[in-house]
Design a protein that fits this description.
Keywords: Kinase, Membrane, Phosphoprotein, Transferase, Transmembrane, Transmembrane helix, Two-component regulatory system. Its main location: membrane. Its EC number is 2.7.13.3. The chain folds into 5 domains: 48 residues; 173 residues, PAS domain (Beta-Lactamase, 2-Layer Sandwich); 169 residues, Sandwich (Immunoglobulin-like); 92 residues; 149 residues, Histidine kinase-like ATPase, C-terminal domain (Heat Shock Protein 90), CATH 3.30.565.10. It is 38% helix and 25% strand. The protein is built from 13 helices and 25 strands. Strands 2, 3, 4, 5, 6, 7, 8, 9, 10, 11 and 12 form an 11-stranded mixed β-sheet that branches. A 5-stranded antiparallel β-sheet has the order 15-14-18-17-16. Strands 20-22-23-25-24 form a 5-stranded mixed β-sheet. Strand 3 and strand 4 form a beta hairpin. Helix 1 packs antiparallel against helix 8 and helix 12 runs antiparallel to helix 13. The protein is rod-shaped. About 1% of the residues have low confidence.
């Protein structure tokens, strides 16, 4: 896999940036939702506190407020508040919504408006028997019994308007009718599967109670009763939102907050606001919203608990509030929808007793829309950053691979088909690893080329070195063969030629022998200044043609090493200095100490070193001599380098500051 594809795969790690951003937005969403829940709980407690001292708003009927929970006479009837006028005509027009209750064949719905109660009873009856108009003081046929604080009968001889009559008694026979009740009026209408009765009456006439019973008569005169009345018991309670309570709660609600007041029997006696209302200015594009929900949404919340009876409220939060504890929960706002409904419930306490609960409901979208917007910006910025980073990585990989190909091609072309190392190699000026690698290659090839030049000239150098002693030996032997009288002259010359051949062979093997013999020399402390003084005295006798001086060796300078090896290194440096200096010139040996090192320097007057050879002098078989009368194969300074490496030191060569010679430095650790 090439470098470009590798970097492309590495660039996939940039996907962690949007993932980390999504986690941050998700945590922010959780924090906002938690804050909204706490705020909603506080709102519920505040409104509940307002209602604590006014229990009569929740229970307009004092008798019901004081009654025990188990004193319910029968199934209560529940009426909602109508926002539009209701026309009493026996039809179900304007009665949208589910049936409130069902008692056998009776489907019941009721509403209140402007202090009046409206009832709609839809009865399934395949044999409708009407009242016999000949019976003036009693009623017959199918009829409806209403009970408030008194009993009323509603019947008709034919479909059309109806009116209630007071029921006087029913003892051992048919119902005995009393006066007409003008406040209760309605309409009887036949339907496809039976008939319907729509009634209207003032709430003040009911005294907080209402029950009904349908008396269904068959063809044989048998009667069957359906409804919520129990014989000889008071009428059940009529539950409806009081107008005073509604007026108090409505100002606390809003288009995004619904407040519901629940009595102790879980009936919703007041409700205001719309929790699912949309919040203006927070619309998010559907695609981004779908991506956001798919990435960030946790497990969907449960559906809200549905009450078994219309008009009541159920759920653990309601039960907790009626038990005296506030509670918070979250549910799905709509079936299959993605929006959440935050629900908070707080108890309403009066005289130390819980008389109801305040339920606050709010759509989480008005807060979570903030995270939608944040996610949209995060997604856009992340995609833009990923695109820019990917393009940058691909461009960088292309540039990097181009440089590597250039370096590879230059390396491949550095050696010709004939094995010769070519001089041209592009030395990069870049300050990175590839630039350093290119420069190292260029330096390596330069050293290889110089070394190969030296090896190619080695035969010429050896032939030059060997030809002279061989010629001396050959001429000496020839002269001895023809003229034995000059024996004392030619035998020393032959021995001198043999000694020179031995010196050549010794110099060639000296470096390897020294490297092997280094480890046999024990390292121990010795006085480097004393060694320099001894060597200075010897060098003045060995090199009388030069002026050899010593400085800085007045005090003891202890060095941990081998005195013999250091003396051998000094011998090589003095021999090198003497060979390059003119007769009568000065060679200076100086010793001085720094904070960390002891430095010995040998400086001579003579030709300067080439700039590119100052560090290569210490390599094996390297020499800058053009002409020489003695054996010099470029091994002496290499031996000095090996000795200094054995002593964990360094050897350096540099031209003098005045440009009139060269200085060699041996650096020992103090």
């Amino acid at each position: 896999m090439n470098l470009r594809r590798q970097l492309l795969l590495v660039s996939l790690l940039l996907l962690t940036l949007p993932w980390a951003g999504c986690q941050f937005v998700r945590e922010m969403e959780s924090a906002l939702e938690h804050g909204q829940a706490q705020s909603l709980r506080a709102s519920a407690r505040a409104v509940a506190t307002v209602l604590m001292d006014r229990p009569e708003l929740i229970y307009p009927n004092t008798e019901r407020r004081l009654a025990e929970n188990n004193a319910q006479p029968g199934p209560s009837l529940y009426a909602t508040t109508s926002s539009a006028p209701i026309i009493v005509d026996g039809y179900d027009d304007g009665w949208d919504g589910p049936d409130h209750l069902q008692f056998g064949p009776i489907r019941y719905r009721s509403r209140t408006r402007d202090g009046r109660l409206y009832l709609l009873l839809q009865i399934t009856d395949h044999e409708v028997i009407y009242h016999d108009p000949k019976l003036l003081d009693r009623v017959s046929g199918d009829r409806l019994l209403l009970r408030t604080d008194r009993d009323y009968i509603i019947s008709t001889a034919a479909p059309g308007p109806v009116q209630a009559r007071l029921l006087n008694s029913r003892i051992g026979g048919p119902d005995l009718m009393g006066n007409w009740e003008s406040r209760i009026r309605g309409h009887w209408q036949d339907t496809q599967d039976g008939f319907s009765i729509e009634l209207e009456m003032p709430l003040s006439a009911l005294h907080g109670r209402l029950g009904f019973s349908l008396i269904n008569v068959d063809g044989d005169g048998n009667e069957t009763h359906f409804g919520n009345l129990e014989s000889n018991r008071p009428a059940p309670w009529l539950i409806y939102p009081p107008r005073a309570l509604q007026a108090l709660v409505t100002p606390f609600s809003s288009v995004a907050l619904r407040l519901s007041v629940i009595d102790r029997d879980r009936w919703v006696v007041s409700q205001a606001g719309q929790p699912g209302a949309a919040v203006a200015g927070t619309k998010t594009p559907w695609l981004l919203r779908a991506i956001y929900r798919a990435i960030l949404n946790k497990d969907p919340p449960p559906a809200p608990t549905a009450a078994a009876i219309y008009g009541q409220q159920a759920g653990p939060e309601v039960e907790g509030a009626l038990g005296g504890n506030s509670a918070v929960g979250s549910y799905r706002l709509t079936a299959g929808g993605e929006q959440k409904l935050i629900l908070a419930a707080a108890p309403i306490v009066s005289d130390g007793k819980v008389i109801g609960a305040l339920l606050a409901e709010q759509n989480s979208e008005q807060y979570l829309s903030l995270t939608d917007q944040a996610f949209s910006q995060l997604l856009f910025i992340s995609l833009l950053a990923m695109l820019a980073s990917a393009l940058g990585l691909i461009g960088y990989a292309s540039w990097l691979s181009w440089r590597i190909r250039q370096l590879s091609q230059a390396s491949a072309n550095a050696i010709g088909a004939d094995g010769q190392i070519r001089a041209e190699f592009p030395a990069s000026s870049a300050k990175d690893e590839l630039g350093e690698l290119a420069r190292q290659h260029a330096q390596l090839l330069l050293r290889l080329r110089e070394y190969n030049e030296y090896l190619r000239s080695l035969s010429r150098k050896l032939s030059h070195e060997l030809r002279t002693p061989i010629a001396v030996i050959q001429s000496s032997l020839d002269n001895l063969e023809h003229n034995d009288s000059d024996r004392n002259v030619y035998l020393p010359r032959a021995r001198q030629g043999l000694a020179r051949l031995a010196g050549i062979l010794t110099s060639m093997a000296e470096a390897n022998r020294l490297e092997e013999s280094l480890y046999s020399n024990a390292l121990e402390p010795f006085d480097l200044a004393e060694l320099c003084r001894q060597l200075h005295a010897a060098y003045r006798q060995i090199y009388p043609q030069q002026q050899i001086t010593l400085s800085g060796a007045d005090t003891a300078l202890l060095v941990h090493g081998s005195a013999d090896l250091v003396a051998q290194a000094m011998d090589k440096l003095l021999d090198n200095a003497a060979s390059f200096s003119r007769e009568g010139s000065r060679i200076t040996i100086s010793v001085h100490k720094t904070d960390t090192d002891i430095i010995v320097q040998v400086s001579n007057e003579g030709p300067a070193l080439p700039a590119h050879m100052q560090q290569q002098l210490f390599d094996s078989m390297v020499s800058v001599r053009e002409q020489r009368d003695d054996v010099h194969l470029g091994l002496g300074l290499h031996i000095v380098k090996l000795i200094m490496e054995y002593h964990a030191g360094q050897v350096q060569a540099a031209n003098r500051d005045d440009g009139k010679g060269v200085t060699f430095s041996l650096c020992f650790r103090a």
